[in-house]
Specification:
Chain C: The complex is composed of two ATP-binding proteins (CysA), two transmembrane proteins (CysT and CysW) and a solute-binding protein (CysP). Chain C: Part of the ABC transporter complex CysAWTP (TC 3.A.1.6.1) involved in sulfate/thiosulfate import. Probably responsible for the translocation of the substrate across the membrane. Chain C: It is a multi-pass membrane protein. The complex is a heterotrimer of chains A (239), B (277) and C (290). Chain A is α/β, with parallel strands linked by helices and 239 residues long. Chain A has nine helices and ten strands. In chain A, the strands form two sheets. In chain A, strands 6-7-8-3-9-10 form a six-stranded mixed beta sheet, with helices on both faces. In chain A, α3 packs across α4 and α3 packs parallel to α5. The radius of gyration of chain A is 18 Å and the shape is globular. Chain A starts with a strand and ends with a helix. Chain C starts with 19 loop residues before the first helix and ends with a helix. Chain C has 14 helices and no strands. Chain C folds into two domains: 30 residues; 231 residues, MetI-like fold (Orthogonal Bundle). Chain C has 290 residues and is an all-alpha fold. Helix content of chain C is 75%, strand content 0%. Classes of the chains: A alpha/beta (239), B mainly alpha (277), C mainly alpha (290). Bound molecules: adenosine-5'-triphosphate and magnesium ion (MG). The site of magnesium ion has 4 residues of chain A, from α1.
């Protein structure tokens, strides 16, 4: 799905989280929102996911104004930094949640739900953990379950807030490739937030560098590395 | 074998142990042992004869039945109240929050005469309801209201801190997965609050079963109809029938014990289901 | 073109909030129920007390029996509450600073009075210390009756308020751990000094909080005290018992005036409690979470 951000601004009371920013994301791209802490990455992602309402500006999905679309209607697969798994549900119940929550008419039959969950578990390469609870999983496993849960609703886009933030360096590297593979397999427009430039450069088709609520530069990783548009980007990249 | 007390550099073991055990024994354990002793020396058979009378059964049944419904009301209302206090901001929220504790702070006898004054046929609420043929004071309904009053804060106070700590992202996750707010409340939030709500329910129930002060005024104490079990104990004592009093007292303890055990098991089960916290 | 007037926007619903009508409805519902259940009784106490004017209420309180009831209640609380505070501190210290077998049992036993009817509590004391029992008979012979006398009232009060202080302190002291005390001890402080200069300052607000709740219950206890006191007018009738007697004699103004006095005490307790909760929120957090 093609995503267009049109002059989106957001302030929380006195603090301005986002200056008016505009950005077009081509369908099927894997995009990194890169920037230091407090630069407004999460805020932008949450506005896309429908968890936050912009102070001004519009969000367009495939050309249609979707600013006022509710979270439920957006069908954005969202992966939270804390994963936000349901602790009282097993892995199976977590992944099946979005399907079971559908109104009766749209709800797939039980067997179909089970089939889809099994398929997703294969996709994240964790078959055979269906009956475990989130607390019985490692950090990396939790992250992948959260991803599978988001994918289960057949989302129109995938939004990930620091998906690897809570993991140690080794697991991070492994899961990076996992995300790339899943992106390539599903073809979903995917936006992930990170403040790790290696991660952004290695993984993304398009990197959006942000600072203090502004977009400093948008470009392919090598463009950003070779032709930083602003002193901030240059400093951030070489740091 | 594990030592009875693990060695520790902390001072004051014998002093704190001494004070704790002495006072616990003197104030709680020995008197309760005296009750059991009285029952034991009276004998199981005679005790059963005391209890197995229509009037006693009716009183016991009344006490536990009304206490259960009062606790049930408090369970539902307490969860709602906790949710409103934690999640909604409105003028006077602090005041409402403080008012929740009034039943804890207000002496039960005071609550009893106040509720009676309100719900008696010539009272403020009583006179409104009279034209519709509704009688509250001196009926089971009056007892129910008194027991709801005394048990009001328990569920709210146990649920509130848990509700405060619910991770918003979990709710947001549910919404991004397409769940309606109602579905989220039922499937995600309710299970998280359940163990705390059950704890509050058990506390409210225990309190309501044994409650005396607020009930005797509004109940009217009509034999076989609105006589609660603790009142029967008081009446036996006034006749110096210690054996009779002990029999009913032990019966109450036994039933309470079974009830609380059941709630505890339910809670272990719900924690296991919801557990993994 | 970028500024879309916000009035044209469709209404946005937060993901973590109920729709506004539900919210308003719920707030109205709980406020209404609380008004009927809690506020109305509060109002009726004062309206009944002043039903015949301020002077009548004031005069009723001057009666000698009532004065002695007020005095007795204060005396009982003044003995029972500090004793329970000492117990609470000792029990909390024992439970949080040492590891020993049977700790869970001990905690259950301390909480036991919460699940015992006050009337049964009073009954237990009568069966232990009544004049016709072994212990009680001996004490009466020594000129120290317990039941139908002040010591019995104190013990009944202590029974029903027994867990109050300990319950508030234990979670706070668990949260604070043992490191500070250990540090003080390694620096050569004596046990008492460590307690007074390290532990006590850390738990003082929780202690005060527990004492406050304990005191409110102590001054208001009815069932347990009714059983052991014998209700001897002017001698063993505490304020709540005096209320019952006056009420049963249809002395409504006097009964409600006395009730009003206890209500004021309850309101002051709530006020202080709220102040503590707001002012020392962090130190009481563990208590509230418990
Ligand atoms: N709910 C909120 N209320 C008030 N201020 C907020 C809120 N959310 C974000 N902010 C502020 O908006 C700014 C941008 O925050 P945002 O979370 O988008 O940053 P971020 O780039 O995701 O940072 P990080 O890398 O630390 O996650 C910050 O100054 C933050 O304090
Ligand atoms: Mg962020």
């Amino acid at each position: 799905m093609h995503i267009e951000i049109d002059e989106i601004a957001k302030s929380f009371g006195d603090t301005t989280a986002l200056q008016p920013v505009s950005l077009a994301i081509p369908s099927g791209a894997l995009v990194a929102l890169l920037g230091p802490s407090g630069s407004g990455k999460t805020t932008l992602l949450r506005i896309l996911g429908g968890l936050e309402y912009p102070t001004s500006g519009r969000v367009l999905f495939d050309g249609a104004d979707s600013t006022g679309l509710s979270v439920q209607q957006r069908r954005a697969g969202f992966v939270f930094q804390s994963y936000a798994l349901f602790r009282h549900m097993t892995v199976f119940e977590n992944i099946a949640y979005g399907l079971k929550a559908r109104p009766r008419k749209l709800r797939p039959p039980r067997a179909e739900i089970a089939r889809r969950v099994a398929k997703l578990l294969d996709l994240i390469q964790l078959p055979g953990i269906t009956d475990r609870y989130p607390t019985q999983l490692s950090g990396g496993q939790r992250q992948r379950v959260a991803l599978a849960r988001a994918l289960a609703i057949e989302p129109r886009m995938l939004l990930l807030d620091e998906p690897f933030g809570a993991l140690d360096a080794k697991v991070r590297k492994e899961l990076r490739h996992g995300l790339r593979e899943i992106h390539d397999a599903t073809g979903l427009t995917t936006i992930f937030v990170t403040h790790d430039q290696d991660e952004a450069m290695e993984l993304a088709d398009l990197v959006v560098v942000m600072s203090m609520g502004r977009i400093e530069q948008v470009g392919r990783p090598q463009d950003i590395r070779e032709r930083p548009a602003t002193p901030f980007v240059r400093e951030f990249i070489t740091a | 074998m594990r030592p009875f007390v693990r060695p520790s550099p902390m001072p004051g073991l014998s002093l704190s142990l001494g004070i704790t055990l002495t006072m616990l024994s003197l104030v709680v354990l020995l008197p309760m042992a005296a009750l059991l002793w009285q029952g034991a020396s009276f004998g199981i058979g005679p005790m059963w004869d005391v209890i197995d009378r229509d009037r006693v059964w009716k009183a016991l049944l009344l006490s536990f039945r009304v206490a259960f419904f009062a606790a049930l009301f408090n369970l539902v209302f307490g969860v709602l109240l906790a949710w409103v206090l934690v999640r909604y901001d409105f003028p006077g929220r602090r005041l409402v929050d403080a008012a929740v504790d009034l039943p804890f702070a207000l002496p039960t006898a005071v609550a009893g005469i106040a509720l009676t004054a309100l719900y008696a046929p010539n009272g403020l609420f009583g006179s409104w309801l009279k034209p519709y043929g509704i009688k509250i004071a001196y009926t089971e309904w009056g007892i129910l209201i008194a027991l709801i009053f005394v048990g009001l804060p328990f569920v709210t106070r146990t649920v509130q801190p848990v509700a405060e700590e619910i991770d918003r992202e979990v709710e947001e996750a549910s919404a991004t997965l397409g769940a309606s707010r109602f579905y989220t409340l039922c499937r995600v939030i309710a299970p998280m609050l359940a163990p705390a709500a059950l704890t509050g329910f058990a506390l409210a129930l225990a309190r309501a079963v044994g409650e005396y002060g607020s009930v005797i005024f509004i109940a009217g104490n009509i034999p076989m109809k609105t006589e609660i079990a603790p009142l029967l104990i008081v009446m036996q004592l006034e006749e110096f029938n210690y054996n009779g009093a002990a029999a009913i007292g032990i019966a109450m303890l036994a039933i309470s014990f079974v009830l609380l055990l059941a709630i505890n098991l339910l809670q272990i089960w719900s924690r296991r289901r919801i557990g993994h916290v | 073109m970028s500024e879309t007037p916000s009035s044209h926007r469709p209404r946005f619903r937060s993901a973590t909030e109920e729709p506004a009508p539900v919210r308003i409805g719920l707030i109205a519902f709980v406020v209404l129920v609380l008004a009927v259940l809690v506020l109305a009784p509060l109002g009726v106490i004062f309206s009944e007390a002043f039903a015949k004017g301020w002077a009548a209420a004031w005069k009723a309180l001057q009666s000698k029996d009532l004065q002695s009831a007020i005095w007795l209640t204060l005396v009982v609380a003044a003995i029972a509450v500090p004793l329970n505070a000492v117990f609470g501190v000792a029990a909390a210290w024992l439970i949080t600073k040492f590891d020993f077998r049977g700790k869970a049992v001990l905690i259950t036993l301390i909480d036991l009075p919460f699940s015992v009817s006050p009337v049964v509590a009073g009954l237990c004391l009568v069966l232990m210390f009544g004049a016709n029992t072994m212990v009680g008979g001996w004490l009466v012979a020594q000129g120290m009756p317990i039941v139908f006398a002040i010591p019995g009232i104190v013990m009944a009060t202590m029974f029903v308020t027994f867990p109050f202080v300990a319950r508030e302190l234990i979670p706070v002291m668990i949260e604070q751990g043992r490191t500070e005390e250990e540090a003080a001890l390694t620096l050569g402080a004596s046990g008492w000094r460590t307690f007074l200069t390290v532990t006590l300052p850390n738990i003082r607000w929780a202690l005060l909080y527990g004492v406050l709740l304990c005191n409110a219950r102590a001054m208001g206890e009815f069932g347990a005290v009714a059983v052991v006191s014998g209700k001897i007018r002017g001698k063993t009738a505490t304020m709540p018992l005096a209320i019952e007697m006056l009420y049963n004699e249809y002395l409504s103004v006097a009964a409600f005036s006395l009730a009003g006095l206890l209500t004021l005490l309850a309101l002051v307790t709530l006020l202080l409690k709220s102040v503590l909760e707001i002012r020392y929120a962090d130190q009481l957090a563990a208590t509230r979470r418990h």
